Amino acid sequence: MARYVANRLIQAILLLVIVSALGFAILHLAPGGPLAQFAVSSQMSQEDLARVTRQLGLDRPLPIQYLDWFGRMLRGDWGRSYRDGEGVLTIIGSHLGATFELMATATVIAVLLGCWIGVLGAVRRYSLFDSLATIGAMIALSIPTFWFGLVTIYIFSVHLGWLPSGDRQTIGDGSVLDLLHHLIAPAMVLALVETAIWGRFMRSSMLEVVNQDYIRTARAKGLPEWRILTTHALRNALLPMITVAGLQFPTLLGGALVTETVFTWPGMGRLFLDSIGYRDYPVVMGILMFSATMVLIGSLLADILYAVVDPRIRVG
Amino acid sequence: MGAAALQSVQLAPGQAAWQRFRRHRLAVAGAAIIVILVLGSAFGPYLLPFDDTYIDIMRRFAPPLSGAHILGTDELGRDVLARLMMGGRVSIAIGIVAMIIAMAVGILVGAFAGFYGGVLGAVLMRLVDAVLCFPAIFLLLALAALTEPGLMTTTVLIAATAWMNVARVVEAQVRSLREREFAVAAVAFGSSDLRIMFRELVPNAMAPIVVSATLNVATAILLESYVSYLGYGIQPPAASWGNMLNNAQIYLTSAPWLALAPGIAITLAVTSFNFLGDGLRDALDPRMNIP
Questions:
Q1: What is the pLDDT of residue A313?
Q2: How distant, in Å, are the alpha carbons of A204, A291, B153, B214 from that of A211?
Q3: Among A228, B37, B107, B238, which has the highest number of CB atoms less than 10 A from its own CB?
Q4: pLDDT of res. B158
């Protein structure tokens, strides 16, 4: 086990180095490089620009700059926002709560609903429910999240007036009920794609388990069907879902970005888009690196957790 | 019964695949919808009396089915149907061209990684893993923000965020195919590496490649809609399904039809390509068909 974890950890660190190199390359792809925003300002002369370039060490060879940049990233110095000079990590941190709130709620909805749909689809394979669920999942995966958000706003906010059309809370109203009221629509929109993914994986995982010998043994013992499903099949079918949680994490993050823009949700996705609008490259790059790192850690945790619950993995 | 069984055995592989495909009704429906969308976007604009960029301030926000504007007009009085068709050209073209670029890159990377393996393979596949760490929309928006928006840039950037899965598929295929007899025989004949890779191995992996190409079009159309909706893709006055939804949220209360048509078009196109890919998978890869 320790060897597996160590091995996986080394892989992850290696990947982090490549990810950071990519991030650094993208930053330098920017027209004018990292100093682009100063170059357009008329208050800076060519000499000023050259001096800043020297001061920031941008005249050094790229590999040296990269090592310096990577070192600072590791130490938590992710640069400062062009907009207000705030530290990039501080800014990201202040928006993370809203994003996590949204992602966690959507995940809970998606896991419960998706697993239920998947199990039912597998148990009643090729039934009407199964076919409808399969088609529904495909459509859910094909609907642009932002458009589904617009439709939701139109139906539930504009037409019925049941839900607020955006923001995280009503200003001046700090009650939990108000927060929940604002959370419903964006969480449902984000949960749609997630539910489809979880449902599809749950269905195939359940189908795999149901055909195993030990299920036949359980049937032969005369156990009631619901007990076979819950204690024998479901528990084993849920194991691979840990991997799904890791796999769909990038989708979840990307979906959160789009959902946040539609519902003016004050999270990291919204911040990302605002920062792009302001050409605030340090924050843009910070969020890009932050989300990639989260994905990396997510898949690492999923792999390790899977190895903990399923000993067969550790050998492979 | 015996005759029917014999007949199905004797079918040529292509015919068998076609029969399997035909049984997948949703895939057939998807293919039909794609044909309709492509033909509609290609020839539809010639049948309409309106130009997609013609601004008619006097007839802003005409609701659908009012007068000559079948789908109504937008905030500048432009005909929504004309824009939908012209937008379809852009969105479908981006989907297909981005797919072709992504396939080329993915096949190249996958073939080299799978064929040579070792350090080169490891480096290439770790690069694939690394790019996959970035959520596609984040990466696409960041790159789009750094470059000048336009048709070509948007297409290339979408391809740049969508080639990795193809590379994985091809790498796995090539890695296993190169051990097979025909590949070994090609080596014995003294064929060059490139020839073995692209004349022997990749053609034999065509089934999964075609499937992933189809799904790739769906992804590309979806990504175009995201990036154009957010304002960093296709720029007005040119229409794309994504940028038609750009202002839709502002007018959601007063002119909800502006949001309806492009959204349905995107969903229809993406769903169709996804179902088509699904059907092709069942048809071309009988091994995955075991119930």
A1: 67
A2: 11, 38, 49, 31
A3: B107
A4: 95
Q: Considering CB atoms only, which of A14, A135, A273 is closest to B126?
A: A14
**CA angle A58-A62-A65, nearest 5°?**
60
- Profile chain A (316 residues) by mean pLDDT over runs of 10 residues: 86 90 81 60 70 73 83 84 84 91 93 92 88 92 92 87 78 75 89 93 89 85 84 85 87 92 90 87 88 91 86 64
SS3 A87: strand
Min Cα distance B52 → chain A (Å) is 22
Considering only CB atoms, which chain B residues are within 8 Å of A153?
A: 249, 252
What's the full length of chain A, in residues?
316
Give exposure, A92-119, as e/b (b: 16+ Cβ within 10 Å). beebeebbebbbebbbebbbebbbebbb
Q: Which residues of A touch B26 (CB under 8 A)?
A: 135, 138
Q: Backbone phi, then psi, for A212, in 5-degree steps?
A: -75, 160
**Which tokens belong to A259?**
């959902």
Q: What is the pLDDT of residues B15-69, one digit of tens each?
A: 877 888 888 888 999 999 999 999 988 888 887 777 777 777 777 777 777 777 7
Interface contact B136, partner A, CB < 8 A: yes
Cα-based angle B87, B93, B96 (whole degrees, multiple of 5): 140
Secondary-structure percent of chain B, ordered helix, strand, coil, rounded to 5: 75, 0, 25
Tell me: pLDDT of B286 over 70: no
Q: Report whether the peptide linkage leading into residue B237 is cis, meaning its omega lies within 30 degrees of zero.
A: yes
Would you say the C-alpha torsion A41, A46, A50, A52 has a positive or negative sign? negative
**HSE toward the beta carbon, residue B12, CA cutoff 13 A:** 2
Chain A residues whose CB is inside 8 A of the B128 CB are none
Q: Which residues of B touch A151 (CB under 8 A)?
A: 259, 263
**Reported pTM:** 0.88
Among candidate residues A136, A304, A309, the one with its CA nearest the CA of residue A238: A309
Could you report the predicted ipTM of this complex, rounded to two decimals?
0.86
Summarised one tens digit per residue, pLDDT across range B95-135 is: 999 999 999 999 999 999 999 988 999 999 999 999 999 99
DSSP state of B235: P
Please name the amino acid found at residue B24.
H
For residue B244, what are the CA distances in angstroms to A269, A275, B90? 22, 23, 12
Question: How many C-beta atoms lie closer than 10 Å to residue A208's C-beta?
Answer: 14
Shortest Cα distance, chain B CAs vs residue A47, angstroms: 25
Query: Closest to A291 (Cβ–Cβ): which among B135, B262, B270?
Result: B135
For B252, the closest of A142, A154, A272 (CB atoms) is: A154
